[in-house]
Amino acid sequence: MSNVREPLIKPIPILSLRPTQMTVGMREVKEKRKRWREQKKKKQAEALGKHMIPVVKGPDKRFYVVDHHHLARALHEEGITDILVTVIGDLSMVEKDAFWGVMDNKRWVYPYDAKGERRLFKDLPKSITELKDDPFRSLAGELRRVGGFAKDTTPFSEFLWADFLRRKMSSKAVDENFEKAIEKSLVLAKSQDAVYLPGWCGPASDG
Q1: For residue 207, what pLDDT band results from cuts at 50, 70 and 90?
Q2: Nearest to 203 by CA among 162, 143, 193, 137
Q3: At what angle do helices 135-145 and 26-38 cross, to 10 degrees?
Q4: Which domain holds residue 148?
């Protein structure tokens, strides 16, 4: 019998963690770094004690990050070397060649690149330092913060929103005027086109 969530009291080196996605929104990483720097040392220590990174234990005894890739990358860039993790799944008994299939089946991996195209599992980064920038992931994160959609338990829900926005505007538009892209995203988020997405909170019906 195993606990569903098993915190590891011993900190794990951030660079030993294996990502389960290919991209992050670097704008969001920068924002997390800024907020981290604004905290006093005591608050930073408290935050490290509270923010555990959810991981799955793999057959190679490595820990695979299934959420908070942005936080892990931000902390690494701020010079933090170790972090607490919480094991949400133990797949150490799974054969190596079956591991990613099981991860996929449980929706613990998102092997899509910055163009929204699915890639092979072997293309996944080996370290959080190898995560590539997806400006649409930053856009989706900011869209949620300004009320464009609700936080949802669907795995990788912000990536689903990122892919929706990717089909509606160019990356150039996002890069050149992020604020304007957010305004456009807010309109798109309330439209019927987005009704299938997790956390959709479009206009109330007249009924």
Answers
A1: very low
A2: 193
A3: 50
A4: 135-193
Handedness of CA 123, 129, 133, 137 (dihedral sign): positive
Dmax (CA) for the chain in angstroms is: 55
Q: Are residues 97 and 142 in the same domain?
A: no
Residue-wise pLDDT for 122-152, tens only, equals: 999 999 999 999 999 999 999 999 999 998 8
Q: Who contacts 90 (Cβ-Cβ below 8 Å, separation ≥6)?
A: 2, 56, 57
Cβ–Cβ under 8 Å, residues 188 and 168: yes
CATH number for the domain including 77? 3.90.1530.10
Distance of CA 137 to the CA centre of its chain: 9
| CA distance linking residue 70 with residue 25, whole number of Å | 8
The answer to whether residues 9 and 53 touch, using CB atoms and an 8 Å cutoff, is: no
Counted domains in the chain = 2
Please choose, from the candidates 179, 172, 174, 177, the residue with its C-alpha nearest in 3D space to the C-alpha of residue 162.
174
